[in-house]
Amino acid sequence: MLGTEEVNGVATTVVGFFGGDARTPVWFPLSIDGTGLVRHARMQAPGHFMKQIFDDFNAPLTISAPPGT
Predict the structure, then answer these.
(1) 42 contacts 49 by C-beta, under 8 angstroms
(2) Which of 26, 20, 23, 17 is nearest to 48 (CA)?
(3) 38 in a structural domain
(4) Which DSSP symbol is given to 26?
(5) Are strands 3-7 and 25-33 parallel, antiparallel or unpaired?
(6) Is 65 within a domain?
(7) What is the pLDDT at residue 69?
(8) Is residue 64 part of a domain?
(9) Which domain holds residue 7?
(10) Could you give the number of structural domains in the chain?
(11) 49 vs 26: CA distance, rounded Å
(12) Looking at 21-63, which runs of residues are DSSP E strands?
């Protein structure tokens, strides 16, 4: 457990785990809400990082085709 943070108005607990090896260490902090849903996921490695925010769970979904050329 690394701490707490608010993600889009939702209180979360930040937990982390490690992957990779000694040459390429990779850290994964996850912000998890009180129901167990991941709200914010990160991946941090030397020279590389990713960030994802998850929200609007169970909201209606609309998928549209891209405009033609």
Answers:
(1) yes
(2) 26
(3) yes
(4) E
(5) unpaired
(6) no
(7) 62
(8) no
(9) 3-53
(10) 1
(11) 9
(12) 25-33, 38-45, 48-53
Structure token digits, residue 35:
């129901």
The amino acid occupying position 3 is G
Is 66 among the domain residues? no
pLDDT averaged over every residue in the chain: 93
Residue 10 · residue 4 · CB < 8 Å:
no
Give the CA angle between residues 58, 1, 21 to the nearest 5°.
100
Distances (CA, A) of 53 to 3, 14, 30, 38, 60: 18, 13, 10, 9, 18
Burial track 29-68 (b if 16+ CB lie within 10 A, e otherwise):
bbbbbeeeeebbeeeeeeeeeeeeeeeeeeeeeeeeeeee
Which residues of the chain are modeled with pLDDT < 70?
Answer: 69
Collapsing DSSP to helix, strand or coil, 59 comes out as: coil
- What tokens does 10 get? 């939702």
The rounded radius of gyration (Å) of the Cα atoms in the chain is 16
Residue 66 DSSP one-character state: P
